[in-house]
Amino acid sequence: MSSPEIASLSWGQMKVQGSTKTYKDCKVWPGGSRAWDWRETGTEHSPGVQPADVEEVVKKGVQTLVIGRGMSEALKVPPSTVEYLEKQGIDVRVLQTEQAVKEYNALAARGIRVGGVFHSTC
């Protein structure tokens, strides 16, 4: 099962191939995607993305996880989250969201089992 392409990105809106939904923030993995609701884990811009935010994507068997920090990189990614992923043998890429989407799509096009969590506003 391949990772779906992120078909479009603009401020506050993302569309993922294979889904009819428009996401503000989303999680993607080989074979699927869904809205990323920060309230599920109490996520805020700081301290930022926690292991609980990425665990669902990790469980899908990804080799690489791309984290989009927002258009202005307001969303933090603490070292503990990167360490959590690296300990599981996952290659982690933390980028500004537009760059993160480009990186994610390039990896998906190469057939890499890539997942991502993306913030599409600040």
Automatic annotation (TrEMBL):
<dbReference type="GO" id="GO:0005737">
    <property type="term" value="C:cytoplasm"/>
</dbReference>
<dbReference type="InterPro" id="IPR007523">
    <property type="entry name" value="NDUFAF3/AAMDC"/>
</dbReference>
<dbReference type="GO" id="GO:0045600">
    <property type="term" value="P:positive regulation of fat cell differentiation"/>
</dbReference>
<protein>
    <recommendedName>
        <fullName>Mth938 domain-containing protein</fullName>
    </recommendedName>
</protein>
<comment type="similarity">
    <text>Belongs to the AAMDC family.</text>
</comment>
<dbReference type="InterPro" id="IPR034096">
    <property type="entry name" value="AAMDC"/>
</dbReference>
<comment type="function">
    <text>May play a role in preadipocyte differentiation and adipogenesis.</text>
</comment>
<dbReference type="InterPro" id="IPR036748">
    <property type="entry name" value="MTH938-like_sf"/>
</dbReference>
<keyword id="KW-0963">Cytoplasm</keyword>
<dbReference type="Pfam" id="PF04430">
    <property type="entry name" value="DUF498"/>
</dbReference>
